[in-house]
Amino acid sequence: MYDVIIIGSGITGAFIAHFLAKYDIKVLVLEKDVEVSDGVTKANSAIIHSGYDPKPNSLKAKLNVLGNKMYGDITKELNVNFKRIGSYTLAFDKEEEVQLKKLYQQGNKNKVETYLLGKKELRAKEPNIKETVRLGLYAPTTGIIAPWEIVYALLENAIYNGVELKTNHEVIDIKKEKNIFCVKTKENTYYTRYVINASGLFAHKITQMVTNDVDYEMRYTRGQYYVIDRGYDDYVNSVIYPTPTNKGKGVLIVPTIHGNILLGPTSEIVDNPNDTEVTKDGLHYIKEHIDYMMNHTPYKGIIRSFSGIRPKTSREDFIIEELKDVKHFIQVAGIESPGLASAPAIAKMVEDSLLKKEQLPMKSDYRVYKQKNLKISEKPIDEINRLIKQNPKYGKIICRCESITEGEIIDAIKGPLGIKTVDGIKRKVRPGSGRCQGGFCQPLIIEILARELKVRKTDILLNNVGSNILIVETKQSGGEK
Amino acid sequence: MMNQYDVVVIGGGAGGMSSALGAYQNGAKKVLLVERDIELGGILQQCIHNGFGLHHYKEELTGPAYAERLKQELMDTEIDIKLQTTVLKITKDKEVHMMNEKDGYQVIQAKAIIASNGCRERTRHQIDIPGKRLSGIMTAGLAQRYLNIDGYLVGKKVLILGSGDIGLIMARRMTLEGAKVLGVAEIMPYSNGLNRNIVQCLHDYDIPLYLSHTIAKVSGNDRLEQVTLSEVDEKFQMKEGTNKTFEVDTLLLSVGLIPDNKLLTDISVKMNPITNGAYVNDKYQTNIEGIFACGNSLHVHDLVDYVSEESYEAGKNAANYVLHQNKVKQNIINVKSSDHIHYVIPNQIMLDNKNVAFKFRVTKPMEKALIMIKQGNKIVIEIKKRHLLPAEMENVKVNKKVFKYDDDISIEVKGV
Lengths: 481, 416
Prior knowledge:
The complex is a heterodimer of chains A (481) and B (416). Chain A is α+β, with helices and mostly antiparallel strands and 481 residues long. Chain A has three domains: 2-41 and 147-217 and 316-357, FAD/NAD(P)-binding domain; 83-143 and 218-312, D-Amino Acid Oxidase, Chain A, domain 2, CATH 3.30.9.10; 376-459, Arc Repressor Mutant, subunit A (Orthogonal Bundle). Chain A is 30% helix and 22% strand. Chain A is built from twelve helices and 23 strands. Chain A has helices at residues 11-20, 59-78, 94-109, 119-125, 147-160, 203-208, 280-293, 339-357, 381-390, 406-414, 422-429, 442-453; strands at residues 2-7, 27-30, 47-48, 83-84, 87-91, 115-118, 135-139, 143-144, 164-166, 171-177, 180-185, 189-197, 218-228, 239-242, 252-255, 261-264, 268-269, 302-313, 319-322, 329-333, 397-399, 404-405, 472-473. In chain A, strands 1, 2, 9, 10, 11, 12, 19 and 20 form an eight-stranded mixed beta sheet that branches. In chain A, strands 13, 15, 16, 17 and 18 form a five-stranded antiparallel beta sheet that branches. In chain A, helix 1 links the parallel strand 1 and strand 2. Chain B folds into three domains: 1-121 and 256-327, FAD/NAD(P)-binding domain; 123-255, FAD/NAD(P)-binding domain, CATH 3.50.50; 328-416, no CATH class. Chain B is globular, with a radius of gyration of 22 Å. The interface between A and B is large, with 57 and 50 residues.
């Protein structure tokens, strides 16, 4: 019997698990995929927006501004990479200029620090902005983070402090009897007093399991992106946005926390939450919109394209509420942009709503689980040598593009999350994120995973069930039948 | 006290081994060869087919056998070899920063560095293949490694995009191991592989080659299930109504190789945007004195024999640089590629009485062509060729005595 079951291990579920971990209650996180952070969280713009953009007084505005502030302390506490690099929102014609001035006012209302800058100042800060720029809105608090990195850190901390996580556990039914929820997965049935639905693209489907009264529609909105290799630091220093339209924030340029550059997203409504295709048209659209704003875009350095789906809803604002007809079922839905930026504040709001219902005792033995040994190869030489002496595997580079060592990979496999897949390792420590896209390191990752997990290489998955990479062992005696 | 070497060679493939030999046999005393893998040989180790060594050893060897020959030659020298050691960075002052399990992070001072660390495969993302990210789509070289080194097949029903040599070799190899290869698609109207590979790997196994075709879509759930090919016109635009769908679980990509040069670009070595390798003179020296480049990290070769030849020269030049610090600055002239020549190496030569090997590729297949090496407007050398193919690198040796002026040299080709 659990006190709280959280459905979904994306950024929202992870922050909620993190905030509840300090209380002496039984918490379970259920995730349908094999690894955590495998949905909306793994494929978005990776920006902690400043908060001038959402409509004043909306939940989005309030939680974005608060969430942005919270990131500083939390990332410091857990030792996760986070940088405030600031952003420029650009206007290239009269209409956009008017719109930008309105945004500036809105920023003031949302209490976000912003400045209007002219062409000269803008191009001095970001020389690759086109000469046609007329006005820019500078927001110094805009930050960047690797979304999955913070999720992994939050969940590792939660698990370290007693929260349970079950991956590959898709919730297929929920029943409420008396005051107890019975949550069914394909494998098992779990009982709990509270359910928190943080299931991203599937939030409406989970809510439908307990009520007929779902008062919003889900609009799967696909965004396609390009990723540019590290080493193009001269291109931009900050996040660059176009003037937003009613379709969203538009096609952006985002330096990532690991030194790559993201270009995107598109904004297309699709029928299917799994429709993460990239299309010729979509990729062309990105280039067209980037070229409207920027010179010298290093397309030559493109190493990857991907798609992510955002869970927009017909209610437009975030939906964070207890169901009226089903007490103790808290729904967290429609967490699209600025969901990543707002996530800590969303979780805080959920935590507060639980505290309003009952007093939760604190754990006496709560300890923060800090991320350790991040990016060995970037540490000072003395420290690297000290670490290699402790564990020689820290001296063996497995991923040549990102300089990731075997020690870091083994730590990820043996860590609290128990990472099992090639993509899970990639998100946790980055091998395969570089210019060869795993062409060189994937065989080594499979070998390490199989060895450490004591399974066959043919059992190792790229990501989800059915995504095995090696199919037939050719050198076994008798061959495959 | 920092460890010191005359020449440090980065990469233990054919290029690295040959250049280490070149440096050692020409007088460099302390030579270090650094290789990240558990053994020397580089990509040769996974190329278990034959066809290697016809020029260099005058016999036909497999990749591992070719590597073994070079290894044996190394064993007779006092060249230091570090295996399972990765070079993390080099500096303009020729420090080499490297790391392994045993020695930890080490910084070595070299008098000359030779970068011969190979190339990587172009992936689906660099050619914008539409569709989802699925298991079962990978580069041909990766599938080759899984099969020939690790002993695993990556799928049972296979389509291959790109008719480069690795794609062709893998079509045969997967077939021999029991997979069904449904075809090889090539966006160009001609193949990009060596002719002998088209015959021996496709024709002999009745594997169709779809020229002027590309991928319209890949689909599946988590694993690849279907690939749709479309015919393209002269501008590489897909033609409507030409879609063909293949039920396959595997798509292998053989769509080009890219020299891997992060170590050099990090210290701002001047690069050639066509080859993605460094600009070099005829000593294979980059624009930073004492830093040399050769092999597939300089430009992608189709024959390992030429890698060996070129890299041995680079090693010899590095040794000469260390021994004599020859800083000949005068009489340097530029070499340019002109009509129908994709690129030429070297980019600069020094005028002396020695030989130079011009290596270049044409931009399109040509029959009965005339290659002209010009200085200024004057034709210095003419060579008639029956066939020229982009897939086959031309290698023309010239004695530099023929260049009598200070004008730039250009290489051109025309039909006759």
